[in-house]
Amino acid sequence: MRRELTTVKAVCPHDCPDTCGMVVGVDATGWAVELRGDKDHPFTHGFLCQKVANYLDRVYHPDRLLHPLKRVGKKGSGKFERISWEAAIREITDRFKAVAASEDGPQAILPYSYAGTMGKLMYGSLDQRFFHRLGASLLDRTICATAGAAGCDVTLGTRAMTDPEAAVNSRYIVNWGSNTAVTNTHFWRIEHEARKRGARIVTIDPYKSPTAAKSDWWIPIRPGTDAALALGVMHIIWREGWQDDAYLNDHCVGVKELRERVMTEYPVAKVSHITGLSISEIEQFAREYALADELFGGPALIRLNYGLQRHGGGGTAVRTVVCLPALTGDWRHAGAGALLSTSKAYSFDDNYLTRPDLIPKGTRTVNMIHLAEALHGELPGPPVKALYVYNSNPAAVNPDQSRVLSGLAREDLFTVVHDQFQTDTADYADIVLPATSQLEHFDIHNSYGHLYVQANNQAIAPLGESKPNTEVFRLLARAMGFEAELFDTSDEELAKGSLGDSTSRSRDPKGSDSAMAGITLEATKAGPVRLNLPRNWAPFAEGKFPTPSGKCELYSEREKRAGRDPLPHYAPPHEDPQTKPELAARYPLQLLTPPAPQFLNSTFANLDHARKGAGERTLEISPTDAAKRGIADGAMVSVFNGRGRFRARAIVGDSVKPGVVVSLGLWWRKWTDDGANCNTTTSTAATDLGGGATFFDNLVEVTPASRAT
Length: 709
Prior knowledge:
By secondary structure, the protein is an alpha/beta fold. It has a 6-stranded mixed β-sheet, covered by helices on one side. A 6-stranded mixed β-barrel has the order 22-26-23-25-24-27. The chain has a 5-stranded parallel β-sheet with strand order 10-9-8-12-13, with helices on both faces. The protein is globular and about 70 Å long. It starts with 5 loop residues before the first strand and ends in a 5-residue tail after the last strand. The protein is built from 28 helices and 27 strands.
């Protein structure tokens, strides 16, 4: 007889635009025995990716951290003994009080977190309140999305967005730097449905990703040259008279200036040289994109993603690409134009959650990609004496891995890690705290890939002594003697306040014109609730851009005042073979390190089935480059530059063009044979806009592993 189960609505917490609805089946003993997609979710439609479909393996994994731990061995050795929560909280707050009272003050304490969980409460609420009240250094959370967001903001005043569900009506869909079939699988379903209706799918990517392989056309652009291609397409559109003059004249500023630039500075032959694409490829793409309605029966959509922005000119590249729908007028149509993120469609009250009013005047901000510099005392302000890590695994995910590790190994650095597993970072901690999984706590979620608000209902009791972020920071705040009214609010009351479903708010309740007006916590606990936006929403159909001019800013006065180029342009990568020939003479190959489909950044890399599915670490290399180096398919190779090296198994084939190599990540160091992953070679250099990471701006050399280098 089948057991009767209690079903609980939950939400996938991981850093993915899909933010899937989940249904958890819990038996009479309180054990979660089933987990499936929520078939009633209007966007995710009841199916989960291969990672989250096996989420119960993660929840009940034998290596879950279940008790607080204190280091007893050398930093990095991973040797700990069990302690009580009381002892852990006392140790942490005693050390924080001592640092805060020292001559360096509380700014010598650095919180470090990112998107290990994307829930509004666990990602940023009482945690940030605590560090704001403490006066700790601020963390600029830049590692993923800030360059693209900043680029979009210059042109559009917001992140490029359209109604994702309406994209089924587009007839020319461009995955630009987006491995959509893997990293946005529910939107790939929409693309596939659009193709059934006549759409053509094109992928622009230096790597023949699963999306590129499944597309109608793969355009293998050279890494970091996307802005040049966009400018070349503009040149062709204006040359041929394919532009939408009515949209440009009514809803854009800087049309004349941009046209003059692209016609004089970006002829197709020059763009071909920069991008590595043939003139005929560029001409064909421009024609198909500009004339999508005539050729394919509907408008065009550019699905951007974050790979596009991870190089020195990444912010400007995104700023430039999102100009294209203005030239074609595709912003007029629902599901067309460009899509990077829907996150700015939500109006959660983040100030209520995080209380930035508590930040002491003059508090410094540390860019998270500069953790190596921060730990080595190379940034302005006091040295970092205490580090509190949660929702992240910087020992694996941060650039310049070797220097991050040497910084974490400092004996004078007090480090706390709050996590579900003993990660590479936890191995260097002084205190390790056990964290709950998504099934063990309550949270509320927005999305950056659809338009639904969802509550994650707690399905099971916390395993062992694990605690959610909110509860840990309540304990720390009490031990520090902070004001009870700041931290004694329950998680559900925090969620209500963030929605405007409460009297506890930092600003007036949302007006009737808000996309979240009237959305209540109770409604979201029952299932996903769509924002108050019309079906087939086209936010810029009639212009009304949230820019200073109210128009699409092809020319930006803000950029001019900031001392930057006010027009879209091509900014090459920091490490580009064409502009840095001396560096390229030593390290001639451009290395890209996208996530393996079985992992999500470093999440899931400790699970046996995920590592088995991912297989060995590999390096995909073209036959031309392999032959030059005496590398056979299947041989072990060493990938290196002046920052570090790692080993991988060579795959010689056509997934990359000459000059480009790809190694899928991100492996934990403890699961590698050389104690390094691809981030031992990556740089802490920042993007031109937004201070973002430049993981795909990385010149390396590759040799057979047995050869001395």
